[in-house]
């Protein structure tokens, strides 16, 4: 709808320190469009730049990457000076919120994170100039509508810390539940209960990242449907309990 010269002119106004609101009012272009142009017209390098380096705490990063792929998003500061990483965590799991904040502080170049309460959930938020470099999967639109592929340096971290990556994915888009069934024993119905894990995501790429990590650690899984992965074998559930566990 707008040519490249118009987009660059608008981004130049933002680069002067103008807020998105003021630029939007002056140009008649929506704030959402301006924010998306910042991503599209300024492609990010495939590896973090020298000023950012790689995440110092790889274990925390693997966990935070899992959370980000499930419930995270990155947005630019109105003045174009940095970025906000937000991870949405349900109020029902205060331990998960604590773990998310701890991981974000460990990974962020500022060492800071804070919480924003909303109805039914908390957004754990961190500010840094380097979030898009740490999470190059960032982009406009929903994750399941675009390719999600890890960079080689990310693959190396996930390969070294697969359980933390799995735990982050399960904490964002997974659950541990107890199924039950009945059997007739000596003429009497008897109830049997058994635990299992589920992981649900609309992105086939994220599903593939999850199952690849499960294969690496020896967890047997089955595809319940196109967006659901089930882990039900006793030995595999025991492995998940030892390294992931239910949300808390």
3D architecture notes:
The chain has helices spanning 4-15, 20-27, 31-41, 58-71, 94-107, 131-134, 152-160, 162-173, 204-217, 234-243, and strands spanning 72-76, 83-90, 114-118, 121-128, 174-185, 188-200, 222-225, 228-231. Among the domains are: 1-43; 168-243, Homing endonucleases (Endonuclease I-creI, Roll). The strands form two sheets. The protein has a four-stranded antiparallel sheet. A four-stranded antiparallel sheet has the order 5-6-8-7. 44% of the residues lie in helices and 24% in strands. The protein is of the alpha+beta class and 248 residues long. β7 and β8 form a beta hairpin.
N-to-C CA distance: 47 Å
Beta fraction? 15-25%
CATH-level-2 architecture of the domain at 168-243: Roll
Rg estimate, integer Å: 21 Å
Instruction: Identify low-pLDDT runs.
Output: 41-45
Number of helices: 10
Helicity range of the residues?
40-55%
Specify the CATH class of the domain at 168-243: Alpha Beta
Helix and strand sequence: HHHHEEHEEHHHEEHEEH
Main β sheet profile: 4 strands, antiparallel
Q: How are strands sequenced across the largest beta sheet?
A: 1-2-4-3
Structural class: alpha+beta
The CATH superfamily of the domain at 168-243 is: Homing endonucleases
CATH topology of the domain at 168-243: Endonuclease I-creI
The whole-number mean of residue pLDDT values reads 88
């Amino acid at each position: 709808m707008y040519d490249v010269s118009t987009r660059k002119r608008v981004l130049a106004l933002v680069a002067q320190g103008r807020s998105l609101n003021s630029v939007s009012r002056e140009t008649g272009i929506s704030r959402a469009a301006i924010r998306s142009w910042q991503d599209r017209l300024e492609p990010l390098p495939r590896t973090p730049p020298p000023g950012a380096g790689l995440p110092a705490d790889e274990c925390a990063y693997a966990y935070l990457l899992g959370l980000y792929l499930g419930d995270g998003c990155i947005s630019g500061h109105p003045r174009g000076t940095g970025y906000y990483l937000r991870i949405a965590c349900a109020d029902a799991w205060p331990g998960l919120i604590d773990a998310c904040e701890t991981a974000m502080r460990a990974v962020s170049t500022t060492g800071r994170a804070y919480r924003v309460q909303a109805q039914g959930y908390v957004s754990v938020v961190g500010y840094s100039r380097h979030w898009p470099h740490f999470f190059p999967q960032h982009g406009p639109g929903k994750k399941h509508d675009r390719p999600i592929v890890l960079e080689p340096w990310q693959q190396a971290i996930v390969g070294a810390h697969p359980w933390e990556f799995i735990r982050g994915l399960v904490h964002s888009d997974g659950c541990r539940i107890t199924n039950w069934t009945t059997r007739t024993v000596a003429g009497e119905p008897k109830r049997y209960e058994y635990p299992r894990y589920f992981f649900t995501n609309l992105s086939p790429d994220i599903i593939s990242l999850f199952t690849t990590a499960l294969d690496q650690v020896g967890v047997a899984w089955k595809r319940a449907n196109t967006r659901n992965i089930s882990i039900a074998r006793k030995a595999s559930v025991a492995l998940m309990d030892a390294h992931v566990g239910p949300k808390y």
